[in-house]
Amino acid sequence: MVFYRKYRPQTIDDLDSAAVRETLTSVLKKDVPHAFLFTGPKGLGKTSTARILAKAVNCTTREKGKGERGKTSVEPCNVCDQCIAITSGTSIDILEIDAASNRGIDEIRDLKEKIRLSPISALKKVYIIDEVHMLTTEAFNALLKTLEEPPEHAMFILCTTEVQKVPSTILSRCFHISFNLATPEELVRSFNRIIISEKAEVEIEALSMIAKLADGGFRDGAKMLEEIITLAGGKKVTKEFIEEKFKVSSIIFHVAAMFDVFKSKDTQKGLQIIADLAAQGVDMKHFIQKLMEGLHEQMIAQVTTKPKLSDTDLTLSEIKELFVLLSRAYGEMKYAVLPQLPLELVVLEWTNVDTPHPDPLPQGERESSWTDS
Ligand SMILES: [Zn+2]
């Protein structure tokens, strides 16, 4: 099983986001709301948290205020029948609906019909609706009706990556928990849970480096850590090892060099950088991402702090133009026969190589050369 699944948090204490941990703890000490809305980017543990919450409200041994040693009193025990059924996904009272498939039409109709029925064995029937923003208007209306007058035994956990697409009538009836990108410390905390169980040896500097590369995602971080531990094959993972495997310094160096090219419009140099990267086997998609992140940083800085630009800085309109070219190249990567080609075309276009120059040949001669061939 992959690390991200294998080491899915099972208790509130396992949750690596400090804010989510604290909010859930305080919520569970009071009267638990009947509807939650979990929002935030993919890979931050919304569904795992929903399952933990479902366990916490259904755990038969959990008693408010009387925690086991070292554990938060609101924790599910993970050993009672309810906890075990929910962890293994076999509880018939915990219903997970993926609104992205079929846009939830049948599921919400079913929900409306069956919500009044008491749970079979759990204390609360919990509906976890993933990607809730995908529901049809009809399904949203049906959901709203049940949220307005929910039966005592029901609880809803709505998850979404696109909160702006959820109607405000729904939002206002939910207790909102927002899942933000993980801080490097939170990522290292999540890595430590994994490496202790895997008995892997990883330097603390190496962990910080993986945290940086994971860009705030627990899922991406776990994937990367898994890849690195596998590559290390039982050896201690050092910072140097990661640098070597991920060509970290090389990418950072080449991103800086490419920015020089964007400013100087030096075609040869641009193509040379791409050739170097291709020779090293660097993932071009990843490189484009890094370029766009750099541009994005510059754009935000120019809009918010309005710094005085030097000759080596790109102007706002240059940044915008580059965004268009790089986004296009990124999209074309998927079908590119040569992975470096879309980026090379960006360099050519940016440095004006393919701008039509005045035709050096008289019109007549040019036409004849066409007919010759
Ligand atoms: Zn339990």
Plain-language structure description:
By secondary structure, this protein is an alpha/beta fold. It folds into three domains: 3-178, Rossmann fold, CATH 3.40.50; 184-246, Helicase, Ruva Protein, domain 3, CATH 1.10.8; 248-350, Zinc Finger, Delta Prime, domain 3, CATH 1.20.272. 54% of the residues lie in helices and 7% in strands. The chain is built from 17 helices and five strands. The protein has helices at 3-6, 18-29, 46-58, 81-88, 105-114, 137-148, 168-171, 184-198, 204-213, 218-232, 239-246, 248-264, 267-279, 284-304, 316-333, 341-350, 363-372; strands at residues 35-39, 94-98, 125-130, 154-160, 175-178. The protein has a five-stranded parallel beta sheet, covered by helices on one side. Helix 5 links the parallel strand 2 and strand 3 (125-130). The chain is globular. Zinc ion binds at residues 59-62, 76-77, 80, 82-83. Zinc ion is lined by residues 59-62, 76-77, 80, 82-83.
Structural class from helices and strands? alpha/beta
Residues in β-strands, percent: 5-15%
According to DSSP, the number of beta strands is: 5
Order of helix and strand elements from N to C terminus: HHEHHEHEHEHEHHHHHHHHHH
Distance between the termini: 60 Å
State the CATH superfamily name of the largest domain.
Answer: P-loop containing nucleotide triphosphate hydrolases
Report the major sheet: 5 strands, parallel
CATH architecture of the largest domain: 3-Layer(aba) Sandwich
Molecular shape:
globular
Domain unit count: 3
**Order of strands in the sheet with most strands:** 2-3-4-1-5
What is the CATH top level name of the largest domain? Alpha Beta
Helicity, as a percent range: 40-55%
Molecules bound to protein: zinc ion
Based on CA atoms alone, the radius of gyration comes out at 27 Å
Unreliably modeled segments: 357-373
CATH topology of the largest domain: Rossmann fold
